[in-house]
């Protein structure tokens, strides 16, 4: 092979290899859409892109690294019809890094278990925000392992739950606005690090919160 041709082929192969290891964010992209499009789990994306502290960190033209091994993120077994609230903007409930996604996960002690929530690890005392406006239906200590928790009813069969808080700042029956601080992050209940266990319910069934961002 001639030197010039060899350099061209090598350059093309290198460019192709680099393209397969990165993804350029396009208009309308969200972490959830990128995950589904590329068959990469949300946890893996955030692990190799630590700058993504929240889904709203994405910018058009931003280049993301892709994990060497990809795996499709788990989805809820129940199929939930898209409703009007899917199209609304949602507030990311806490500052920090998402360390556990929705679906099956492997635990050192408990083994593989089903995790119908996302976990966001952060600092003790950092604000926990209401993802949508609504009415607080529960703000109490949960003895089953979730510590201080808040449950908000947003109407239309939609509810969100925020667990493991260090302090609650709302009471049952209280109306809250989107983005309002409802609690402070903590490590109460069965938790090894300060984090938020964030869950979304539609008609009583848990769905993947990332499908709404």
Automatic annotation (TrEMBL):
Record-annotated LysM domain positions: 21-66
Alphabetical list of PROSITE patterns matching this protein: LYSM
Signal peptide: 1-19
Annotated GO MF terms: metalloendopeptidase activity
Entry keyword Chaperone: no
Keyword terms, alphabetized: Signal
One family name in Pfam for this protein: Peptidase_M23
Entries under CDD domains matching the protein: LysM, M23_peptidase
InterPro entries found in the cross-reference section: Cell_wall_metabolism_enzyme, Dup_hybrid_motif, LysM, LysM_dom_sf, M23ase_b-sheet_dom
UniProt-recorded name of the protein: LysM domain-containing protein
